[in-house]
Specification:
152 residues; mainly beta; Porin
Length: 152
């Protein structure tokens, strides 16, 4: 009985802690830009008790590289995702959550006049299936399928 007791205590403590832990998931999307180069966008989401509490978007397209905070919109289900981007910081090189690079805020971002994009979609197992729309698209949208690359 003395040898089993420590294991039981450890199991109870471990089970109790699983609900309070946060998990960070990083997803990637391979994009073919207008200049016919391959770039990768990343979404990094932080989950607590299964709900998203914050996130970052790492965008790369032709000569524009940025990091932005994800501003979540209210969704009706846990597997739905809807957000906009804010607090943009622009970088001189490819942005990525996997390496530290220098980024800075700039006045009047290049796409500010066109309107900021809105994102909505679903989280399905290890993927995020998003639709990205811009005001000037007049109801058109891009499909973006992100795949889980890291979970910690």
């Amino acid at each position: 009985m003395k040898t089993i007791l420590p294991y039981l205590v450890l199991m109870i403590v471990t089970i109790g802690q699983t609900d309070t832990l946060t998990t960070t998931r990083t997803y990637s999307f391979q994009n073919h830009s207008q200049l016919n180069t391959e770039t990768i966008d990343y979404i990094q989401l932080v989950f607590k008790k299964g709900a998203i509490i914050k996130g970052k978007y790492y965008g790369n397209d032709d000569n524009i590289h940025f990091v932005a905070d994800i501003k979540l919109k209210n969704t009706s289900q846990k597997d739905e995702l809807s957000f906009t981007l804010h607090n943009y910081k622009f970088c001189d090189e490819l942005s990525s959550p996997f390496k530290k690079i220098k980024c800075s805020k700039i006045e009047n971002p290049p796409f500010e006049e066109a309107g900021e994009p809105t994102f909505s979609g679903d989280i399905i197992q290890d993927q995020i299936k998003l639709r990205r729309g811009f005001y000037y698209y007049q109801s058109r949208f891009d499909s973006m399928n992100f795949t889980l690359v890291k979970e910690e």
